[in-house]
Write a structure and sequence with these properties.
Length: 448
Protein backbone atom coordinates (compact mmCIF):
# COMPACT_ATOMS: atom_id res chain seq x y z
CA UNK A 1 0.00 0.00 0.00
CA UNK A 2 2.86 2.40 0.79
CA UNK A 3 4.28 1.91 -2.69
CA UNK A 4 0.98 2.92 -4.31
CA UNK A 5 0.66 6.06 -2.17
CA UNK A 6 4.24 7.12 -2.89
CA UNK A 7 3.95 6.73 -6.66
CA UNK A 8 2.37 8.69 -9.49
CA UNK A 9 -1.39 7.97 -9.83
CA UNK A 10 -2.23 5.62 -12.66
CA UNK A 11 -4.73 8.07 -14.21
CA UNK A 12 -5.33 11.82 -14.07
CA UNK A 13 -8.16 11.22 -11.61
CA UNK A 14 -5.74 10.23 -8.85
CA UNK A 15 -4.22 12.63 -6.32
CA UNK A 16 -0.48 13.21 -6.92
CA UNK A 17 1.67 12.58 -3.83
CA UNK A 18 3.87 15.46 -2.67
CA UNK A 19 6.99 13.46 -1.83
CA UNK A 20 9.87 15.13 -3.71
CA UNK A 21 12.11 17.35 -1.61
CA UNK A 22 14.82 19.81 -2.60
CA UNK A 23 17.52 17.14 -2.95
CA UNK A 24 15.25 14.99 -5.13
CA UNK A 25 14.45 17.88 -7.47
CA UNK A 26 18.02 19.17 -7.46
CA UNK A 27 19.44 15.74 -8.28
CA UNK A 28 16.90 15.16 -11.05
CA UNK A 29 17.61 18.46 -12.78
CA UNK A 30 21.35 18.23 -12.27
CA UNK A 31 21.34 14.86 -14.00
CA UNK A 32 19.17 16.18 -16.84
CA UNK A 33 21.69 18.99 -17.39
CA UNK A 34 24.56 16.55 -17.97
CA UNK A 35 24.35 15.03 -21.43
CA UNK A 36 26.90 12.92 -23.30
CA UNK A 37 26.49 14.93 -26.47
CA UNK A 38 26.20 18.06 -24.36
CA UNK A 39 30.00 17.85 -24.16
CA UNK A 40 30.24 18.27 -27.94
CA UNK A 41 27.91 21.26 -27.58
CA UNK A 42 31.01 23.19 -26.52
CA UNK A 43 31.65 23.62 -30.27
CA UNK A 44 28.59 25.83 -30.67
CA UNK A 45 29.23 27.51 -27.36
CA UNK A 46 32.75 28.57 -28.34
CA UNK A 47 31.85 29.55 -31.91
CA UNK A 48 28.08 29.97 -32.26
CA UNK A 49 28.27 31.91 -35.53
CA UNK A 50 31.05 29.85 -37.10
CA UNK A 51 33.34 32.82 -37.75
CA UNK A 52 33.75 34.62 -34.41
CA UNK A 53 35.11 32.30 -31.70
CA UNK A 54 34.75 33.37 -28.08
CA UNK A 55 37.47 33.62 -25.49
CA UNK A 56 37.34 30.97 -22.80
CA UNK A 57 36.16 33.56 -20.27
CA UNK A 58 33.37 34.75 -22.59
CA UNK A 59 32.21 31.17 -23.17
CA UNK A 60 32.08 30.38 -19.47
CA UNK A 61 30.23 33.61 -18.64
CA UNK A 62 27.76 32.90 -21.48
CA UNK A 63 27.22 29.44 -20.04
CA UNK A 64 26.48 30.83 -16.58
CA UNK A 65 24.18 33.61 -17.82
CA UNK A 66 22.33 31.38 -20.28
CA UNK A 67 21.90 28.61 -17.73
CA UNK A 68 20.53 30.99 -15.09
CA UNK A 69 18.06 32.61 -17.50
CA UNK A 70 16.94 29.36 -19.09
CA UNK A 71 16.64 27.40 -15.86
CA UNK A 72 14.70 30.28 -14.27
CA UNK A 73 12.17 29.92 -17.10
CA UNK A 74 11.94 26.20 -16.44
CA UNK A 75 11.64 26.83 -12.69
CA UNK A 76 8.78 29.29 -13.18
CA UNK A 77 7.04 26.80 -15.49
CA UNK A 78 7.33 24.23 -12.69
CA UNK A 79 5.50 26.29 -10.04
CA UNK A 80 1.95 25.95 -11.48
CA UNK A 81 2.47 22.18 -11.50
CA UNK A 82 3.28 22.22 -7.78
CA UNK A 83 0.33 24.47 -6.95
CA UNK A 84 -2.28 22.64 -9.02
CA UNK A 85 -0.93 19.08 -9.03
CA UNK A 86 -1.45 18.98 -12.78
CA UNK A 87 1.04 17.72 -15.43
CA UNK A 88 2.42 20.25 -17.91
CA UNK A 89 0.10 19.67 -20.86
CA UNK A 90 -2.99 19.37 -18.63
CA UNK A 91 -2.08 22.78 -17.17
CA UNK A 92 -2.45 24.21 -20.66
CA UNK A 93 -6.19 23.55 -20.46
CA UNK A 94 -6.27 26.56 -18.16
CA UNK A 95 -4.25 28.68 -20.58
CA UNK A 96 -5.83 27.69 -23.91
CA UNK A 97 -8.89 25.61 -23.00
CA UNK A 98 -9.19 21.82 -23.12
CA UNK A 99 -9.50 21.39 -26.89
CA UNK A 100 -6.90 23.97 -27.84
CA UNK A 101 -4.45 22.45 -25.36
CA UNK A 102 -4.29 19.47 -27.71
CA UNK A 103 -2.20 21.57 -30.15
CA UNK A 104 0.86 21.98 -27.88
CA UNK A 105 0.21 18.51 -26.48
CA UNK A 106 0.63 16.87 -29.89
CA UNK A 107 3.73 18.96 -30.60
CA UNK A 108 5.21 17.91 -27.27
CA UNK A 109 4.46 14.25 -27.95
CA UNK A 110 6.24 14.47 -31.32
CA UNK A 111 9.33 16.14 -29.88
CA UNK A 112 9.50 13.95 -26.75
CA UNK A 113 9.32 10.73 -28.76
CA UNK A 114 12.02 12.09 -31.07
CA UNK A 115 14.28 13.15 -28.20
CA UNK A 116 13.67 9.83 -26.46
CA UNK A 117 14.87 7.94 -29.53
CA UNK A 118 17.81 10.31 -29.84
CA UNK A 119 18.84 9.55 -26.24
CA UNK A 120 18.70 5.80 -26.85
CA UNK A 121 21.02 6.38 -29.80
CA UNK A 122 23.38 8.41 -27.59
CA UNK A 123 23.42 5.74 -24.86
CA UNK A 124 24.16 3.03 -27.40
CA UNK A 125 26.96 5.01 -29.04
CA UNK A 126 28.41 5.76 -25.62
CA UNK A 127 28.38 2.07 -24.70
CA UNK A 128 30.06 1.18 -28.00
CA UNK A 129 32.79 3.76 -27.29
CA UNK A 130 33.63 1.68 -24.21
CA UNK A 131 33.12 -1.87 -25.49
CA UNK A 132 33.69 -1.46 -29.21
CA UNK A 133 31.77 -3.64 -31.66
CA UNK A 134 31.68 -6.67 -29.36
CA UNK A 135 28.02 -5.90 -28.72
CA UNK A 136 26.09 -4.53 -31.73
CA UNK A 137 24.33 -1.17 -31.69
CA UNK A 138 20.89 -2.77 -31.89
CA UNK A 139 21.46 -4.77 -28.71
CA UNK A 140 22.42 -1.65 -26.76
CA UNK A 141 19.32 0.15 -28.04
CA UNK A 142 17.08 -2.64 -26.78
CA UNK A 143 18.82 -2.74 -23.39
CA UNK A 144 18.55 1.05 -23.05
CA UNK A 145 14.91 0.94 -24.15
CA UNK A 146 14.00 -1.70 -21.56
CA UNK A 147 15.79 0.27 -18.81
CA UNK A 148 14.08 3.50 -19.86
CA UNK A 149 10.63 1.93 -19.91
CA UNK A 150 11.18 0.31 -16.50
CA UNK A 151 12.07 3.69 -14.97
CA UNK A 152 8.83 5.21 -16.27
CA UNK A 153 6.72 2.56 -14.53
CA UNK A 154 7.98 3.77 -11.12
CA UNK A 155 8.91 7.42 -11.87
CA UNK A 156 9.07 8.78 -8.31
CA UNK A 157 11.06 5.77 -7.15
CA UNK A 158 13.41 6.35 -10.08
CA UNK A 159 13.96 9.99 -9.05
CA UNK A 160 14.78 8.93 -5.50
CA UNK A 161 17.19 6.34 -6.90
CA UNK A 162 18.92 9.08 -8.90
CA UNK A 163 19.29 11.22 -5.81
CA UNK A 164 20.63 8.48 -3.55
CA UNK A 165 23.11 6.78 -5.84
CA UNK A 166 23.51 8.00 -9.42
CA UNK A 167 24.12 11.68 -8.68
CA UNK A 168 27.05 10.89 -6.39
CA UNK A 169 28.66 8.78 -9.11
CA UNK A 170 28.14 11.55 -11.68
CA UNK A 171 29.76 14.18 -9.44
CA UNK A 172 32.80 11.97 -8.84
CA UNK A 173 33.06 11.20 -12.57
CA UNK A 174 32.91 14.86 -13.59
CA UNK A 175 35.59 15.82 -11.08
CA UNK A 176 37.78 12.92 -12.23
CA UNK A 177 37.54 13.95 -15.88
CA UNK A 178 38.06 17.63 -15.08
CA UNK A 179 41.38 16.83 -13.39
CA UNK A 180 42.41 14.52 -16.25
CA UNK A 181 41.48 17.00 -19.01
CA UNK A 182 43.06 20.07 -17.43
CA UNK A 183 46.42 18.31 -17.53
CA UNK A 184 46.05 17.13 -21.14
CA UNK A 185 44.14 19.81 -23.05
CA UNK A 186 46.04 22.44 -25.01
CA UNK A 187 45.86 26.00 -23.64
CA UNK A 188 42.59 27.80 -24.39
CA UNK A 189 43.56 31.19 -25.85
CA UNK A 190 42.44 33.70 -28.45
CA UNK A 191 38.92 34.72 -29.43
CA UNK A 192 36.75 37.70 -28.53
CA UNK A 193 33.42 38.62 -26.92
CA UNK A 194 31.77 39.51 -30.25
CA UNK A 195 29.48 36.44 -30.36
CA UNK A 196 28.60 36.54 -26.66
CA UNK A 197 24.85 37.14 -27.24
CA UNK A 198 24.43 34.21 -29.69
CA UNK A 199 26.30 31.98 -27.25
CA UNK A 200 23.90 32.96 -24.47
CA UNK A 201 21.02 32.28 -26.89
CA UNK A 202 22.38 28.79 -27.51
CA UNK A 203 22.69 27.98 -23.80
CA UNK A 204 19.20 29.32 -23.06
CA UNK A 205 17.85 27.10 -25.84
CA UNK A 206 19.46 24.06 -24.20
CA UNK A 207 17.76 24.92 -20.91
CA UNK A 208 14.28 25.95 -22.01
CA UNK A 209 13.87 22.77 -24.02
CA UNK A 210 12.81 21.30 -20.66
CA UNK A 211 9.95 23.79 -20.11
CA UNK A 212 7.30 21.37 -21.48
CA UNK A 213 8.11 18.72 -18.86
CA UNK A 214 8.80 20.84 -15.76
CA UNK A 215 5.34 20.51 -14.22
CA UNK A 216 5.29 16.74 -14.83
CA UNK A 217 7.80 16.39 -11.99
CA UNK A 218 7.10 19.55 -10.00
CA UNK A 219 3.53 18.43 -9.31
CA UNK A 220 5.08 16.03 -6.79
CA UNK A 221 7.22 18.67 -5.05
CA UNK A 222 6.57 19.51 -1.42
CA UNK A 223 6.48 23.24 -2.20
CA UNK A 224 6.83 25.75 -5.03
CA UNK A 225 10.09 26.98 -3.53
CA UNK A 226 11.46 23.43 -3.53
CA UNK A 227 10.56 22.96 -7.19
CA UNK A 228 11.98 26.30 -8.35
CA UNK A 229 15.19 26.09 -6.32
CA UNK A 230 15.79 22.48 -7.34
CA UNK A 231 15.46 23.33 -11.02
CA UNK A 232 17.57 26.49 -11.03
CA UNK A 233 20.24 25.30 -8.61
CA UNK A 234 20.64 21.74 -9.87
CA UNK A 235 20.40 22.51 -13.57
CA UNK A 236 22.62 25.59 -13.58
CA UNK A 237 25.47 24.02 -11.64
CA UNK A 238 25.47 20.86 -13.74
CA UNK A 239 25.11 22.56 -17.13
CA UNK A 240 28.00 24.94 -16.40
CA UNK A 241 30.12 21.95 -15.38
CA UNK A 242 29.06 19.92 -18.43
CA UNK A 243 29.78 22.63 -21.01
CA UNK A 244 32.95 23.74 -19.24
CA UNK A 245 34.24 20.16 -19.32
CA UNK A 246 33.14 19.91 -22.94
CA UNK A 247 35.43 22.80 -23.89
CA UNK A 248 38.45 20.75 -22.87
CA UNK A 249 37.12 17.45 -24.23
CA UNK A 250 36.62 19.05 -27.66
CA UNK A 251 40.11 20.58 -27.50
CA UNK A 252 41.61 17.14 -26.87
CA UNK A 253 39.51 15.31 -29.48
CA UNK A 254 39.96 18.08 -32.07
CA UNK A 255 37.16 20.43 -33.11
CA UNK A 256 37.21 19.16 -36.70
CA UNK A 257 36.71 15.56 -35.58
CA UNK A 258 33.85 16.48 -33.24
CA UNK A 259 32.21 18.67 -35.89
CA UNK A 260 32.26 15.72 -38.30
CA UNK A 261 30.98 13.25 -35.68
CA UNK A 262 29.61 14.40 -32.34
CA UNK A 263 30.42 11.04 -30.76
CA UNK A 264 34.14 11.70 -31.34
CA UNK A 265 34.01 13.66 -28.09
CA UNK A 266 33.66 10.33 -26.25
CA UNK A 267 37.25 9.42 -27.12
CA UNK A 268 39.03 11.60 -24.52
CA UNK A 269 36.74 10.29 -21.79
CA UNK A 270 37.43 6.63 -22.51
CA UNK A 271 41.17 7.29 -23.00
CA UNK A 272 41.60 8.98 -19.60
CA UNK A 273 42.97 6.92 -16.68
CA UNK A 274 40.08 4.75 -15.44
CA UNK A 275 38.11 6.57 -18.11
CA UNK A 276 36.06 3.57 -19.19
CA UNK A 277 34.78 3.07 -15.64
CA UNK A 278 33.78 6.68 -15.03
CA UNK A 279 32.44 7.15 -18.55
CA UNK A 280 30.26 4.06 -18.03
CA UNK A 281 28.65 5.88 -15.10
CA UNK A 282 27.84 8.81 -17.38
CA UNK A 283 26.46 6.45 -20.03
CA UNK A 284 24.23 4.74 -17.47
CA UNK A 285 23.11 8.12 -16.18
CA UNK A 286 22.03 9.14 -19.67
CA UNK A 287 19.02 6.88 -19.15
CA UNK A 288 17.46 9.63 -17.03
CA UNK A 289 17.23 11.74 -20.20
CA UNK A 290 15.35 9.07 -22.12
CA UNK A 291 13.27 8.36 -18.98
CA UNK A 292 12.23 12.02 -18.71
CA UNK A 293 11.28 12.13 -22.40
CA UNK A 294 9.24 8.92 -22.37
CA UNK A 295 7.57 9.81 -19.07
CA UNK A 296 6.66 13.29 -20.34
CA UNK A 297 5.18 11.71 -23.45
CA UNK A 298 3.05 9.54 -21.18
CA UNK A 299 1.86 12.55 -19.18
CA UNK A 300 1.09 14.41 -22.41
CA UNK A 301 -0.96 11.52 -23.74
CA UNK A 302 -2.93 11.46 -20.50
CA UNK A 303 -4.17 14.94 -21.42
CA UNK A 304 -5.76 13.27 -24.45
CA UNK A 305 -6.66 10.01 -22.67
CA UNK A 306 -7.10 10.93 -18.98
CA UNK A 307 -8.47 7.58 -17.83
CA UNK A 308 -5.95 5.27 -19.50
CA UNK A 309 -3.43 3.60 -17.17
CA UNK A 310 -0.11 5.45 -17.51
CA UNK A 311 1.81 2.15 -17.31
CA UNK A 312 0.14 0.93 -20.49
CA UNK A 313 0.98 4.20 -22.24
CA UNK A 314 4.60 4.11 -20.99
CA UNK A 315 5.18 0.60 -22.27
CA UNK A 316 3.70 1.48 -25.67
CA UNK A 317 5.80 4.65 -25.95
CA UNK A 318 8.91 2.79 -24.75
CA UNK A 319 8.47 0.20 -27.50
CA UNK A 320 7.82 2.88 -30.13
CA UNK A 321 10.82 4.95 -29.06
CA UNK A 322 13.08 1.89 -29.13
CA UNK A 323 11.81 0.98 -32.59
CA UNK A 324 12.55 4.47 -33.91
CA UNK A 325 16.07 4.38 -32.48
CA UNK A 326 16.65 1.04 -34.24
CA UNK A 327 15.63 2.11 -37.73
CA UNK A 328 15.84 5.93 -38.03
CA UNK A 329 18.89 8.18 -38.35
CA UNK A 330 17.94 10.08 -35.21
CA UNK A 331 21.18 12.08 -35.31
CA UNK A 332 19.86 14.10 -38.26
CA UNK A 333 16.50 14.50 -36.49
CA UNK A 334 17.98 16.85 -33.89
CA UNK A 335 17.72 20.05 -35.95
CA UNK A 336 14.06 19.36 -36.75
CA UNK A 337 13.35 18.84 -33.07
CA UNK A 338 14.99 22.18 -32.36
CA UNK A 339 12.47 23.83 -34.69
CA UNK A 340 9.56 22.22 -32.84
CA UNK A 341 11.03 23.00 -29.45
CA UNK A 342 11.12 26.72 -30.25
CA UNK A 343 7.33 26.88 -29.99
CA UNK A 344 7.57 26.34 -26.25
CA UNK A 345 9.66 29.45 -25.47
CA UNK A 346 6.88 31.96 -26.29
CA UNK A 347 4.28 29.59 -24.88
CA UNK A 348 6.11 29.69 -21.54
CA UNK A 349 5.97 33.49 -21.57
CA UNK A 350 2.21 33.48 -22.24
CA UNK A 351 1.72 30.96 -19.44
CA UNK A 352 3.89 32.87 -16.95
CA UNK A 353 2.20 36.23 -17.57
CA UNK A 354 -1.34 34.85 -17.50
CA UNK A 355 -0.77 32.65 -14.46
CA UNK A 356 1.39 34.91 -12.28
CA UNK A 357 0.41 38.45 -13.37
CA UNK A 358 -3.15 38.23 -14.71
CA UNK A 359 -4.67 36.04 -11.99
CA UNK A 360 -4.62 32.72 -13.80
CA UNK A 361 -3.64 30.93 -10.58
CA UNK A 362 -7.07 31.80 -9.16
CA UNK A 363 -9.29 31.22 -12.19
CA UNK A 364 -7.70 28.60 -14.45
CA UNK A 365 -10.00 25.71 -15.35
CA UNK A 366 -7.92 22.59 -15.99
CA UNK A 367 -10.87 20.20 -16.32
CA UNK A 368 -11.91 18.38 -19.48
CA UNK A 369 -14.67 20.95 -20.11
CA UNK A 370 -12.38 24.01 -19.95
CA UNK A 371 -13.64 26.54 -22.54
CA UNK A 372 -11.41 27.62 -25.43
CA UNK A 373 -9.37 30.81 -24.97
CA UNK A 374 -8.60 31.72 -28.57
CA UNK A 375 -7.02 35.04 -27.65
CA UNK A 376 -4.07 33.27 -26.01
CA UNK A 377 -3.03 31.83 -29.37
CA UNK A 378 -2.19 35.35 -30.61
CA UNK A 379 0.76 36.14 -28.29
CA UNK A 380 2.02 32.57 -28.68
CA UNK A 381 2.07 32.88 -32.48
CA UNK A 382 3.64 36.36 -32.44
CA UNK A 383 6.29 35.17 -29.99
CA UNK A 384 7.08 32.25 -32.28
CA UNK A 385 7.59 34.66 -35.18
CA UNK A 386 9.77 36.90 -33.01
CA UNK A 387 11.94 33.93 -32.10
CA UNK A 388 12.86 33.16 -35.68
CA UNK A 389 13.29 36.79 -36.63
CA UNK A 390 15.85 37.38 -33.88
CA UNK A 391 17.58 34.04 -33.24
CA UNK A 392 21.09 33.41 -34.52
CA UNK A 393 21.03 29.66 -33.79
CA UNK A 394 21.13 27.69 -37.05
CA UNK A 395 18.78 24.72 -37.55
CA UNK A 396 18.14 23.34 -41.05
CA UNK A 397 18.95 25.26 -44.22
CA UNK A 398 15.44 25.44 -45.77
CA UNK A 399 13.89 26.67 -42.51
CA UNK A 400 16.64 29.22 -41.86
CA UNK A 401 16.38 30.37 -45.48
CA UNK A 402 12.63 30.91 -45.08
CA UNK A 403 13.14 33.28 -42.17
CA UNK A 404 15.99 35.06 -43.92
CA UNK A 405 13.54 35.76 -46.75
CA UNK A 406 10.92 37.00 -44.26
CA UNK A 407 13.45 39.41 -42.72
CA UNK A 408 14.36 40.72 -46.16
CA UNK A 409 10.70 41.13 -47.14
CA UNK A 410 9.81 43.22 -44.09
CA UNK A 411 13.12 45.11 -44.00
CA UNK A 412 14.18 43.70 -40.65
CA UNK A 413 17.89 43.37 -39.87
CA UNK A 414 18.90 41.05 -37.08
CA UNK A 415 21.47 42.70 -34.81
CA UNK A 416 24.36 40.79 -33.20
CA UNK A 417 23.05 41.51 -29.70
CA UNK A 418 19.63 40.00 -30.37
CA UNK A 419 18.60 36.84 -28.54
CA UNK A 420 15.90 34.60 -29.99
CA UNK A 421 14.66 33.08 -26.75
CA UNK A 422 14.48 36.39 -24.92
CA UNK A 423 13.00 38.15 -27.95
CA UNK A 424 10.24 35.56 -28.25
CA UNK A 425 9.51 35.66 -24.52
CA UNK A 426 9.40 39.47 -24.47
CA UNK A 427 7.03 39.79 -27.44
CA UNK A 428 4.73 37.02 -26.17
CA UNK A 429 4.69 38.50 -22.65
CA UNK A 430 3.91 42.05 -23.80
CA UNK A 431 1.11 40.95 -26.12
CA UNK A 432 -0.37 38.77 -23.35
CA UNK A 433 -0.31 41.76 -20.99
CA UNK A 434 -2.04 43.90 -23.62
CA UNK A 435 -4.77 41.30 -24.13
CA UNK A 436 -5.22 41.00 -20.36
CA UNK A 437 -5.50 44.78 -19.98
CA UNK A 438 -8.10 44.96 -22.77
CA UNK A 439 -10.11 42.16 -21.15
CA UNK A 440 -10.00 43.96 -17.81
CA UNK A 441 -11.29 47.18 -19.39
CA UNK A 442 -14.14 45.33 -21.05
CA UNK A 443 -15.08 43.65 -17.79
CA UNK A 444 -14.99 46.98 -15.96
CA UNK A 445 -17.19 48.63 -18.60
CA UNK A 446 -19.69 45.76 -18.42
CA UNK A 447 -19.99 46.16 -14.64
CA UNK A 448 -20.75 49.85 -15.04
Amino acid sequence: MTHVVDEVPLTLEGTPPKTLGLLDQGALWANLAVSLLGFSGALLLLNPLGDAPLTLAAALVATLVGSLVGSAMVGLAAIPGTQTGRPAMVLLRGLFGARLSYIPTVLNIVQMIGWGAFELWVISKGAMAIFGDAVPYQAWVVVAGVLTTSLTIWPLGSIRLLRRYVTIGVIISLIWFAVAFLSKAPPQSGGSWAAFAPAVDYVIALSVSWVPIAADFARHSRSSRTAFTGVVGGYTLAQVACLGLGVYAVAIAGSAAVEADGTAVFGPFVAAPLGALFFAILVLREADQSFANVYSTTMSLQNLMPRVDRRVISIAIGVLTTGIALVVDVNSYGAFLGVIGAVFVPMFAVLAVDYFLLGGHARWNTEENAPARWSMLVPWALGFVAYWLTTSTPTVAPWDGLWAAVRAAIGFTRQPWMNGALGAALVAALVTLAIGAAAARRASAARR
